[in-house]
Structure formats: C-alpha cells, structure tokens
Amino acid sequence: MYFPPMTHTATKTPAHPARGDARLALLDAALALVRRQGWAATSIDQLCRTAGVTKGAFFHYFESKEALGVAAAHRWTEVTTPLFENAAYHRHADPLARILGYLDFRVAIVQGPLEAFTCFAGTTVQETYAASEAIRSACGACITDHAARLEEDFEAALRKYRPRAAVTAESLALYTQTVLQGGFVLAKAKGNAGPLLDGIAHLKRYLQFLFKARSTS
Amino acid sequence: MYFPPMTHTATKTPAHPARGDARLALLDAALALVRRQGWAATSIDQLCRTAGVTKGAFFHYFESKEALGVAAAHRWTEVTTPLFENAAYHRHADPLARILGYLDFRVAIVQGPLEAFTCFAGTTVQETYAASEAIRSACGACITDHAARLEEDFEAALRKYRPRAAVTAESLALYTQTVLQGGFVLAKAKGNAGPLLDGIAHLKRYLQFLFKARSTS
DNA sequence: TGACACATACCTACCGGTTGGTATGTACTT
DNA sequence: AAGTACATACCAACCGGTAGGTATGTGTCA
After folding, report:
1. Which residues of B, range 70-109, sit inside 8 Å of A by Cβ?
2. Which of B131, B143, B199 sits opposite A189 (nearest CB)?
3. Does B188 lie at the interface with A, CB-CB under 8 angstroms?
4. SS3 of A162, please?
5. A213: exposed, middle or buried (C-beta count within 10 Å: 0-12, 13-18, 19+)?
C-alpha cells in the first residue's frame, strides 16, 4: 500500500469525537502520525491527544500498542483500496494501458508534504519486522493485497503481448511496489518527491520495453 | 548506501573495549541495532550495553542521540565505501558490464538475516526525515554519495551506447538505489530476500533494454 | 629522570519527564 | 438493569540527558 489521504473519512478529527468514533479517530491518528514520525516515535499518549480521546478509550479498543498497529494496517488497506478502485484508469480496455494509467495516477497523487503520499505499511514494517511478527505480516498483507490487484492486469498484459522475457505477473506487480517504496525512501532522503517521480518514469519505460517488444508499435 | 557488514572493522565488539575504542564501539553498535530495530526503538542505554561502555562514555563523544545518528551515517559510508571499492566488478573495461557487475555484487552479498544486508541510511531516514534535518541530510548524503560512484559508470555507458531514450546518468544511478531501497522494504514486509533479488533482476533487464537497444548485440 | 600540570577518556549516580499499561469509576444506550 | 463506551488516576520501568568524580595518559621543565 502506498498512497493515502491525510484527510480522513471522518473529514476532520474533532477535539472530542462523538461516542462510538474513538476507535476510528485513533486509527486515523495513527496513520497520520506514523507516516510523519515513524512507529516507535509515535506514543499512545500522542495518539490519544491527536484523536481527542483518553487512554481509557485507547485500551478499551486495543489491548496493546501492537494491536493498534495491526488494526491500523487493516485500516490503511480499507482507506486506500477504494481510492484506487474508483480511479479512472480502470476504464482502459488494454491491460497495459491500465497499468500505465495506475502509474500515472500515482504521479497525480504526489502532492503536498511527503507524509501525504508515502506509505504507512512500508514505513511501519521497516521498524517492526524483527520486533513484531503480527505487525510485520499485517503490513506485508497491505502491500501484497495491493499488488494483487495489479497482478490481474499484468496477467492479462502478459497473455496479450507475450513478451520474450520470462517474467511472471506476480513478480512484475511486486516490482512496481518495490519501485514505489524505494521512491518513498529516496524522496524522504532527498527531501522532495523528485526521485519518486523519476523512479516511476523509469518503471514505465521498462514496462514499455518489456511489452512493446512484440506489440503493435 | 545499502549493504553492510554486520561484523565490524574491530572484528567483534568486546564486553569492554580498550581505552579509546568506545566511540567506534558505539557507532558500530548503532549500525547493528538500528538496522534491526529502527532508530527510535534503539535507546542510548541499549547502545551502551551493546558497546560495553557506560552512558558517561556516550556523552563524552556525542552531545546527543541526534549527534550519534549523524556520526553513524558517516560511519556507514566509511564502512561500506571500501566494500564496494574493492569489489572485482570494477575491473570490467565496459562501463555497462561494471554496472551489471555492481548489481551482481549486490546479489552476492544478500546473505544471512535481513539486518545483515539492509541499509542503515534508508532505515534511519524513513523515521527521522521530519524530525531531524541533521540526520536526514547525513543519511541523504550516504545514499547520494554512493549513487555518485555509479553515476560515473552510467555517464560512460551513456556515451558509449547512446541509447534512444533521454535519460541522465544521475537519474539512472538514483534509480538503482530506488530499486535497492524498495527491495529492502519489500524483503522486510515479506520476511525474505526474494523481492529484493527479483527487483535487481528486473532492473538488470531494464538496463539491458535501455543500452542494448543500439548496442552490438 | 622525575615530578608536576593538564587533558583525555571514561564511570557512577542521579534527574525530571515520558513510556506502555492497569485499575477503577461513571455516563450513556438499549 | 446491564452492557458498552468511555474518563480519571495511577504505576513501575525506562527515556534522554546531566553532574561530578576517577583513571590514564602526555607534554614540560628542572
């Protein structure tokens, strides 16, 4: 997973969310704070302050910080999935056009500060892969599930264009995520989105090389 | 920067390093611990315990945890630079062969646990880019400087093969790092090095497409 | 050659604040 | 009346950082 809206479904986290909204407020606070500061640097107190609830509410819904992390990963999938599902690029009849459209969509949502378009799952898993198997696998599933949607289009593109190279749809879908995640890291290191945009451009060229090698062009 | 030896120059960090070695012991402890646990999860106390020194020694050499982070980034460059500089792939006369050799070398050092071949700079900058400009720029320099060596080979390859596509040596060098960093993230998310190895294979194919398009093949 | 001056390289003990987590109480909803 | 959804108050452990001491040099001059 990857991109995100910084504005949550509940539009704006209120000072005191209505009864029943504390869980969602905490989850959305987690997505926002962790993307900016990382997992370990985000404390439960800060989460509660941002969400406008107390620690009692936190431990009412989550039995530990780790449990919150797992739930936040699920929430991340929940919030990003419709974003990509409703995007216009799915309308293309050609599977390769859909994939390239996905990449263009990625470029289009690169706006605002870095924490507005980087990935919760990628950030979190870097810190927790050795410490928490539960969080690791939840974040891993975020990325794998997101790649799985692309995989279908790659499958179709492979059938249609039959490139010379022996590549699998799964490997290509994962590679797109590799480039995106790496782009996020480089963007953070450089302080701007340039490397991410460049990375996507290189990836598009690779896919064109790969598929157009025997296509109609 | 990226790969690393987990075994330090001072072979093994002793329980109590000899007088004068505390600084290096702390730095090497930082590289090891941060790559496994992340930056924020690594405390000064734990650093001192691992290095076999006390807090007094820590603050004798570093005025803050942030200062240690900056120094560790420099140490990271110091320890990885000779590793790549002494590698055999530099012997190739053809610049493209050197680049492909670099990637093969990357594959060759993917061994042991994840924290043994992932990147200190990439891990650290993900957590600190918003919180510490000093650490961010130090880690950014790690990656940029490492890419700069590759850039020379790309420059030569570009001159020699003159590919049709309008790409710069800098952009290509940065893209290799993007793929590597992204590979590290996916490897952590999946729990194995597969995505990293696959990513490198895709990158090699891209470069071959790009340069062989007008080459002798 | 020795002794004094001084710097470097640490170590022990401690500080206020924050951490993740708990125990208990209360108000609202059904 | 009872369960759900919180809030309040609290805790031991740990956090980054400081204060003040000591052990081990090293340079200087008689």
Report:
1. none
2. B143
3. yes
4. coil
5. middle
Q: Cα(A127)–Cα(A39) distance, rounded to whole angstroms?
A: 7
pLDDT along chain A (217 residues), means of 10: 46 61 94 97 96 95 96 97 98 98 98 96 97 97 98 98 96 98 98 98 97 61
Phi, psi for A88 (deg, rounded to 5): -70, -25
Picking from A37, A137, A202, the nearest residue to B175 by CB comes out as A202
A114 and A188 in contact (C-beta within 8 Å)? yes
Distance in Å from D17's C1' to B67's CA comes to 13
Inter-chain contact A178–B182, Cβ cutoff 8 Å?
Answer: yes
Structure tokens at B50: 């691992």
* Amino acid sitting at position B72: A
- Please provide the CATH number assigned to the domain covering B22-212: 1.10.357.10
- Domain boundary assignment for chain B: 22-212
Token pair for B91: 């012997």
Q: What is the ipTM of this complex?
A: 0.92
Question: Measured from the CB, is B19 under 7 Å from any atom of strand D?
Answer: yes
Q: What are phi and psi of A8, to 5 degrees?
A: -85, 170
CB proximity A168 to B under 8 Å: no
Say how many CA atoms lie within 13 Å of A136 toward its Cβ. Answer: 17
Nucleotides of strand D within 7 Å of the protein's CB atoms: 5-10, 14-21, 24-25
Cβ of A49 less than 7 A from strand D: no
CA A59/CA A96 separation, integer angstroms: 47
Helices A169-190, A120-128: inter-axial angle, 10-degree rounding: 80
How far does Cα A206 stand from its chain's mean position?
22
Average pLDDT, consecutive stretches of 10 residues, N- to C-terminus, chain B (217 residues):
44 60 93 97 94 94 96 97 97 97 98 96 97 97 98 98 96 98 98 98 97 61
On whether any CB of chain B is under 8 Å from the CB of A156, the answer is: no
> Who among A125, A165, A195 is closest to B189 (CB)?
A125
Cβ of B190 within 8 Å of Cβ of A144? The answer is yes
